[in-house]
Amino acid sequence: MSATASTVRRPRALARLWDSDVVWSFRHSPIAVISALVVAVLVIAAVFSRWLAPHDPFDLASLSLMDSLRPPAFLGGEGDWSFPLGTDDQGRDVLSTIMYGMRVSLVVGVLAVGFALVVGIVIGLVAGYVGGLVDTVLMRIADIQLTFPAILIALLVDGIVRAVLPRDLHDQLQIYVLVFAIGIARWPQFARTVRGSTLIERGREYVMAARVIGLSPLRIMATHILPNVLGPVLVIATLNVGLAIVDEATLSFLGVGLPPTQPSLGTLIRIGNDFLFSGEWWITIFPGLTLAMLVLSINLLGDWLRDALNPRLR
C-alpha cells in the first residue's frame, strides 16, 4: 500500500514542479533555454574532456612539432580534420586544449564563488543578527574592499602568497591560491546582501519565538534565518560564477594565474596572443570565443533566475 502511494506521489510532485512558477518562466523564456543548453554543452565537454576530446594535449608522446601551427580544417590548405580547430605552436590540438582548459576555468570559478559564498554568508549573518559594533566593523571592512576592483584584490592576494610560499610549493598550490584570491575578492557582495536580509528577518515573530524558547543564536541563524535569505544570494552566486571565470582568465592572461602546463582558457588566450599578428589567429580567437559564450550564457541564466525569483515581476 505504501509503495503504491509513493508511486502516485512521484508523478504528482513532478507535475507540481513542472507547473511551478520558476519552471513555467524557464519554459517560456527562449533566452534562458538557449543559455542553459549552451552551458550544458560546454560543461559536458569540459567535464568529460578526457573521453570526448580528439587528443590529449598533456600526452607529450603524442605531440609532434610537425603538426604545429596547422590552420583550422574548414579553411582547407594545410588543415587536417584530425585537428578541427587547428594546432598551436607545440602541435597541440586547439579544440582539445579548449576542452581541458575550460574544465580548469570552471573548477576555479565554481570553487571561488563557493568560498566567497560561505565567507559572505557567515559574515553577513553575524553582522545582521548581532548588530552594534560587530556590524559596524564588518561592514566598514566590506565597504573599504568594495572601493577596489575585484581583480586588484585578487592580484594583491596572489602577490602576497607568492612572497610567502616557496616557488615550488606555490606552483603546486596555484589553483588553490587562485580560488582563495578570487573568493576573498568577492565575499563583500554576499555579506552585504545577507546582512540586509538578516536585519529584516531578525525582527519577525518566528525569530522572537525561537529566542523565547531558549534557542542559541547560532542555531537561530543556521536553521531559521539562513533558509529565508538564500534566494537573492543564489542569484548573486550564479552571476558571480561568470565574473570569477573572467577574473581567472584575466589573472592567467597577465601571467599570474595557472602555468602553461596546466592551461585554462585565460592561459590559452595569452599563449595565442603572441601569434595573433603573425597570422595564426585561431590559437587565441577560439579560446576567446569559448570564454565569451560561457560567461555570457551564465550571466543570461543569472538574469533570468533573478527575474523568476522576484515576486514583483510575476
Automatic annotation (TrEMBL):
One of its GO terms (cellular component) is plasma membrane. It comes from Rhodovastum atsumiense. The keyword Transmembrane applies. Belongs to the binding-protein-dependent transport system permease family. It is a multi-pass membrane protein. Residues 102-302 form the ABC transmembrane type-1 domain. It comes from the Bacteria. Pfam families: BPD_transp_1 (PF00528), OppC_N (PF12911). It is found in: Cell membrane. The chain crosses the membrane at residues 31-53, 106-132, 144-165, 225-246, 281-305. Keywords: Cell membrane, Membrane, Transmembrane, Transmembrane helix, Transport. The keyword Magnesium does not apply. This is ABC transporter permease. Its main location: membrane. One of its GO terms (biological process) is transmembrane transport.
